[in-house]
């Protein structure tokens, strides 16, 4: 039997895992009544746990363009997950801050992540999960992943 793509590459496998994880996060949001929130937009909420951030800071931290972050912030603001407030250190600048609704979304995301980790631990065993975490961390390190965007970003250095 002819199988043109018999063995997916490791990057393809990682993409499949990421898509499956994103689908599970979306299911978790739906179960929490957050049907207007997409997992990709929700990732923007995580860095806001430490307090308000400028769009430029968020973009730099996520390794994406300011325009992409600004668009996502607009969507999240419409949904009531974030709000823009004046930066107390610079009246011309605005900070993106979490709202209580945004905290609800983060709690739903965390519940889903912990459920997934539990499933992976049962499937891989605790040592296997630890190894997976170490390997993924190594790939995301400054010199391990060959990435030009996001974690491990070495562009411009």
TrEMBL record:
It comes from the Bacteria. One of its GO terms (molecular function) is DNA-binding transcription factor activity. One of its GO terms (biological process) is response to stress. Residues 7-141 form the HTH marR-type domain. PANTHER family: MARR FAMILY REGULATORY PROTEIN, TRANSCRIPTIONAL REGULATOR, MARR FAMILY. This is MarR family transcriptional regulator. It comes from Parafrankia colletiae.
């Amino acid at each position: 039997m002819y199988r043109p793509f018999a063995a997916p590459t490791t990057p393809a496998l990682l993409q499949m895992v990421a898509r499956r994880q994103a689908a599970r996060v979306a299911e978790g949001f739906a179960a929490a009544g957050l049907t207007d929130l997409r997992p990709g937009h929700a990732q923007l909420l995580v860095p806001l746990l430490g307090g308000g951030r400028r769009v430029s800071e968020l973009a730099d931290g996520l390794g994406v363009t300011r325009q992409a972050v600004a668009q996502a912030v607009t969507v999240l603001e419409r949904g009531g997950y974030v709000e823009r407030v004046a930066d107390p250190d610079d009246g011309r600048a605005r900070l993106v801050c979490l709202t209580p609704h945004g905290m609800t979304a983060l709690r739903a995301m965390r519940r889903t992540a912990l459920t997934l980790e539990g499933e992976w631990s049962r499937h891989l065993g605790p040592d296997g999960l630890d190894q997976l975490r170490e390997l993924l961390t190594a790939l995301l390190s400054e010199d391990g992943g060959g990435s030009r965007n996001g974690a491990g970003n070495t562009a411009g250095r």
